[in-house]
Amino acid sequence: MSVNRKHGVSPALENRMKRSAIDLIAHAGKALNMDHVAMGTAVVIFHRYYATHSFLLNDKFLIAMACLYLGGKLEDTPKSARDVITACCMRRYGPEVAGLSLRNHDFLTAARERLFLAERAVLYALRFDVAIEHPFGTMLAALRRPALTRVWQEWGQAHPGSVSFQQMCINLLNDSYKLPLCLMFPACHVALACIWTVMKVLRIPTRLSDDGVTPWWQEHGMQHEDLKEISCMLLERLYHADDGAGGTVGPVSAACPTPTPPKQLRAVGVKRKAGETGGAEEYNDLFDELLA
Amino acid sequence: MYALPLQTGELVAIKKIRVGEKGEGVNVTALREVKLLRELHHPNIVRLLDVWPSRRGIALVFEYMETDLERVIRDRAVLLTGADVKAYLRMVLAGLAHCHARWVVHRDVKPDNFLLASSGALKLADFGLARPYGSPDRPFTHQVFARWYRAPELLYGSTCYGPGVDVWAAGCIFAELLLRRPWFSAESDVGVLNKIFTALGTPRDANWGGLRAMPAFVEFQPTPPAPLRSLFPNVAVAPDDALDLLSRMVCLAPAQRISAADALRHRYFRVDPAPTPQERLPKPGRAGVRVAAAAASAKRPGGEREATPAAEAGGPAPAGMDSGDVRFLKKRRLQMDAALDDAADA
Ligand SMILES: Nc1ncnc2c1ncn2[C@@H]1O[C@H](COP(=O)(O)OP(=O)(O)O)[C@@H](O)[C@H]1O
Ligand SMILES: [Mg+2]
């Protein structure tokens, strides 16, 4: 049994806690001008930490802050402890309260001490295994393959004005960071599964191939089983709000293709257009540049 | 799970890094070294076995390396044949080629960062300055490398350079293996440039686009290159193929410089004599080690190393390290304790 279950933290509560902490990482990271790799690393190490640590005993705000601080250091965009604390407090307490505290020298000193302690706690928990893989490169490379290029071109022509196929893939990939998939699957597999999922949801045949033999997703040792497994997790955990994990399913907007799109599609496709999902959406925007 | 070397009796080297010296938590340099070494696995790159927490910082645990290339070069008692030089250079290039294939520039290539294992394998160490490259938006600092090993583009202040800087430094090591002294040693950047241009000729705009636009460009009196043969007259250790490869490694214009991978495919490595098998490579004598150790007393902040026979380290518990279980024997350069020496002294 996991530590969190032992401590009576239900899966739904655990999920909600993670969501809000990851949200904080995304917003504070953006305020600090950190890039998507640094923030992605921060989120991955956050998941890794709480895979073995209790939410009841480890302040998620503090740990999230330490993960962000470490993400910057590990990905060569270090931010000072002071800046990280400021950005996180601003996000959490709002400018007024945070501004007051941050002007207090003792508060800042204490916060720094705690941050440094948390930083080491995270490193120890990770056993210094800090080389984090990210799925962005794999996704972009896959989308450039002939078989998939045809898919998104055709999709774009058939649905002018709608969210592009690539954008849906990237949205889903960004959302995938909210799940601890990084603990279970290699980053490249998650990337491929995101594309596959979007194709499934859009009812695009997935049996495509560049050479007419090997399926497009068959690289990096990807198995069909894993593909389905990751895909199910993504759809269930991200977009079925019942277990407290969801929350990105918003009102259907004109962006949705006809006829009667499945619920999941709305979740994947609707966000950027309608802009109704707040935090999650901004996190997605960080990766827009990937499409450029 | 971590296989602790402790049960095996294997010797390890420990680099202790204090936390919080600059008030910014765990040292970024150390984190970078850990991160990169976790990804780089190669017979010519030093193995990071583990990282331990310690009371005042973190401790990087490396496989123990007997000596380093600088001591080999400096030890007058060591005779280096053409085959030996070839073997060392091949290991230097193989380590670098592996880094470059993984988009890592080392940026501190010099003889004392190539460590020599008792097996005779030469391994690249000290990744504190190493960085991933390939994202052009992130400018680099040109304050890297020991001065004598800095490529001309660095001396000219470039902030967007690539793996060619490592190849240049490897070329300097190659020359140093042949000469048995540093090639471009001088007290200042301009002094080094001067030595470089005296040997290789001044760069010409036609060969090096954007030369004059370099941030720290200085014009030198145009000089033609000296024939390399006149600088390396010993044909036995430096045959023509060797000099041809050397000239490509120290090509002034970074764009035309040979890559580490291509250098390994150079004719030099295919013709006789074959590189000496690593177990037969000459090593500096123990006396040589001691002299070098005593002579080099310079301390640098940030790093502190000790080596200990793993069997004596008192178990994997980090506490064991701080509580004096690790025996200190002899101060070596950069506070390196050689447990081997220790055992010998005891
Ligand atoms: N694995 C090792 N085994 C034995 N000695 C080592 C090892 N690693 C480093 N040393 C010694 O410690 C010195 C400094 O280590 P290095 O990693 O280069 O740190 P710094 O960043 O301080 O230069 C080296 O020149 C070498 O003499
Ligand atoms: Mg060094």
UniProtKB/TrEMBL annotation, chain A:
Keyword Glycoprotein: no
A Gene Ontology BP annotation from the UniProt entry: regulation of transcription by RNA polymerase II
Keyword Zinc: no
Gene3D superfamilies in the cross-refs: Cyclin-like (1.10.472.10)
Cleavable signal peptide: none
Protein keywords: Cyclin
GO MF annotation: an example: cyclin-dependent protein serine/threonine kinase regulator activity
Domain Cyclin-like: 23-124, 150-236
Any Pfam family the entry gives: Cyclin_N
Protein family per UniProt: Belongs to the cyclin family.
Protein name as catalogued: Cyclin-T1-4
Species this protein is from: Auxenochlorella protothecoides (Green microalga)
TrEMBL record, chain B:
Low complexity bias (residue ranges): 291-300, 308-320
Listed InterPro entries: CDK, Kinase-like_dom_sf, Prot_kinase_dom, Ser/Thr_kinase_AS
GO terms, biological process: positive regulation of transcription by RNA polymerase II
One Pfam family in the UniProt entry: Pkinase
Lineage: Eukaryota, Viridiplantae, Chlorophyta, core chlorophytes, Trebouxiophyceae
EC numbers for this chain: 2.7.11.23
MF GO annotations: ATP binding; cyclin-dependent protein serine/threonine kinase activity; RNA polymerase II CTD heptapeptide repeat kinase activity
Alphabetical keyword list: ATP-binding, Kinase, Nucleotide-binding, Serine/threonine-protein kinase, Transferase
Species per Swiss-Prot/TrEMBL record: Auxenochlorella protothecoides
Keyword Kinase: yes
Calcium recorded as keyword: no
Gene Ontology annotations for the cellular component aspect, listed alphabetically: cytoplasm; transcription factor TFIIK complex
Residue intervals of the Protein kinase domain: 1-269
SMART domains associated with the record: S_TKc
Chain intervals for the UniProt region annotation (Disordered): 291-326
Name the UniProt record assigns to this protein: [RNA-polymerase]-subunit kinase
Family named by the database record: Belongs to the protein kinase superfamily. CMGC Ser/Thr protein kinase family. CDC2/CDKX subfamily.
